[in-house]
Design brief:
The chain is elongated. The protein contains 8 helices and 2 strands, in the order H-H-H-H-H-E-E-H-H-H. Among the domains are: 56 residues, no CATH class; 102 residues, no CATH class. It has 239 residues and is mainly alpha-helical.
């Protein structure tokens, strides 16, 4: 009895569906129509998507301010990155100068901060103003190299493509060999090798990161500028 009832319901659904679909529906085999009819009925009865909630003028103004700030960063990201890089590379020069002037508290705070990422061994560090810098010779080459290569990037950005990963790792090999052979006591490095290998590492990082950042910020800038043009047309349709 249950099987007969299900068959009658399927046939009724087929009859209802065939009246509202294309003429080719009747040419389909009965078992195919019986399988597709429930899906068509559910799709037909599906409620439309609700409209997005209205945004208040205050919220809209806040979103526009945030978008303007993001657009400013997207337009001047090289300057922002180089300012951060220059600050990080320059503070280790400030701390020895502060010590030479007897200003110990901020100097010790800077030494402590850089000590979180660098061993700061005296025999592997440069000395300025009569005191050792906050980072070792290799770290000095890395951070200074990132800063100076970042400054040079706008001059070659148009012709620079991202460095392939295998070449990046290849530029890391000299630093890895120099560092690990020294770490395991196989040999002792010198300041020239630390500076050269650190500079190669910095070059690879900038060569990989900056072209990708340039592409990402360019796309962000285009999207935001298009959004602002659309908002301007909505608020000033006469123009």
């Amino acid at each position: 009895m249950g099987e007969r009832q299900r068959t009658d319901e399927a046939q009724a659904s087929i009859a209802t569906t065939s009246a509202t679909v294309a003429p080719g529906w009747s040419a389909l085999p009965e078992e195919v129509r019986a399988r597709l009819a429930p899906q068509l009925d559910s799709a037909r009865q599906e409620a439309p998507m609700p409209a997005p909630p209205a945004v208040s003028p205050r919220t809209r103004a806040f979103i526009l301010r945030v978008d303007r700030a993001v657009l400013a960063v997207a337009r001047h990201w090289v300057l922002a990155v180089n300012l951060i890089g220059g600050l990080y590379a320059g503070l280790p020069l400030l701390a020895p100068w502060l010590l030479s002037r007897g200003i110990t508290f901020p100097a010790n705070a800077i030494y402590f901060f850089y000590g979180l990422t660098c061993h700061q061994l005296p025999e592997r560090s440069f000395y300025v103003f009569g005191n050792k810098m906050c980072y070792c010779q290799r770290c000095c080459a890395i951070y200074s190299g990132v800063f100076f290569f970042g400054l040079a990037f706008p001059l070659v950005a148009r012709w620079t493509r991202p460095l392939r990963w295998r070449w990046m790792f290849l530029l890391w090999v000299p630093m890895a060999l120099d560092g690990f052979t020294q770490l395991f006591g196989l040999r002792e490095s010198n300041w020239e090798l630390r500076v050269i290998t650190g500079t190669l590492f910095a070059l690879s990082c900038v060569w990989v990161a900056f072209p990708h950042l340039a592409r990402a910020f360019a796309e962000m800038r285009r999207d935001l500028e298009h959004r602002f043009r659309r908002v301007a047309l909505e608020t000033n349709p006469a123009r």
